[in-house]
Structures are given as C-alpha cells and as structure tokens.
C-alpha cells in the first residue's frame, strides 16, 4: 500500500506542476540526462518540512525508478521480494524538469529541486492530508 502511495505521490506531483517552455541547448539537455541515468531508489517524502522515510519491505530491496540512455524509464515496485514494473514509458529532462510520458500517452512534468550524483529531489504542491489546502511536498531518491 505504501509503495502504491509513493508512486501516486511521485506521479501526481507532475499533475499540479506548471510547465514553462524553454529552448534549452542540446548540451544542457544531454548533461541533465546523463546525470539522471541509472537507478534511483525511493528514500523519503518530505511534507511541509517533515520527513517521512521510506520503510517498506527493505529486507527485499527498495522500490526504484530507472532512467535508461534510450529515453525510457521504468518504475519498479518490490512485491513479495519480486520486482514488478508499476509504470514505464519515455522521459525527457531539462535543467528544471523531468517529463514522463506513460505508456497510455499521459505526460507528467515534475520539478527538479536537486539533481547530483547521489540525490534526485523533486518537488511540488499537493493536498497531501486532504484538508483542502495544498502542502509543499518533496520526493527524495538516492543511488543506494
């Protein structure tokens, strides 16, 4: 259940994120894509500056998202110590955003707060506690 919630939170961040069209040079886009490549493990969700650590079935491994050099990605959940592809599609990245196109052609745009060799942090606003007011939400991924 937590895993599905994390995926929904990750994907839903893009549903309320505004997207500004920029003409990034090919070199900027290539550099961002290279930094993004590989496996990113769910680490924590941060809601209104309160950190909620990932704590779901670690004995089997952490859920993760993998960005491939051919422009595809996979969201993988660990269920009963077996990997299950929960979402997949294509992606593009700029200095400030990751655009995920799901297999059903829905596109989700996520704001990048931090991207370096060890941490990917995306952020946005969402009514996390369903009280009618949006909260600041960040989803942190790490390389291990």
From TrEMBL:
Does Signal show up as a keyword for this record? Answer: yes
One Pfam family of this protein, by short name? Lipocalin_4
Q: Which controlled-vocabulary keywords does the entry list?
A: Signal
Q: Which residues form the signal peptide?
A: 1-21
Which domain of life, per UniProt?
Answer: Bacteria
Domain Lipocalin-like, residue spans: 36-120
Protein name, as recorded: Lipocalin-like domain-containing protein
What is the species listed in this Swiss-Prot or TrEMBL entry? Salegentibacter mishustinae
């Amino acid at each position: 259940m937590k895993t599905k919630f994390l995926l929904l939170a990750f994907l839903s961040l893009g549903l309320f994120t505004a997207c500004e069209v920029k003409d990034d040079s090919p070199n900027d886009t290539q550099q961002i894509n290279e930094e993004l490549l590989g496996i990113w493990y769910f680490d924590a969700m941060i809601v209104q500056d309160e950190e909620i650590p990932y704590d779901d079935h670690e004995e089997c491994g952490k859920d993760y998202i993998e960005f491939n050099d051919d422009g595809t990605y996979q969201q993988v959940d660990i269920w009963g110590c077996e990997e299950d592809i929960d979402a997949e599609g294509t992606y593009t990245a700029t200095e400030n955003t990751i655009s995920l196109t799901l297999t059903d052609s829905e596109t989700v745009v996520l704001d990048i707060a931090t991207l370096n060799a060890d941490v990917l942090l995306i952020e946005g606003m969402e009514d996390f506690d369903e009280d009618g007011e949006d909260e600041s939400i960040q989803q942190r991924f790490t390389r291990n």
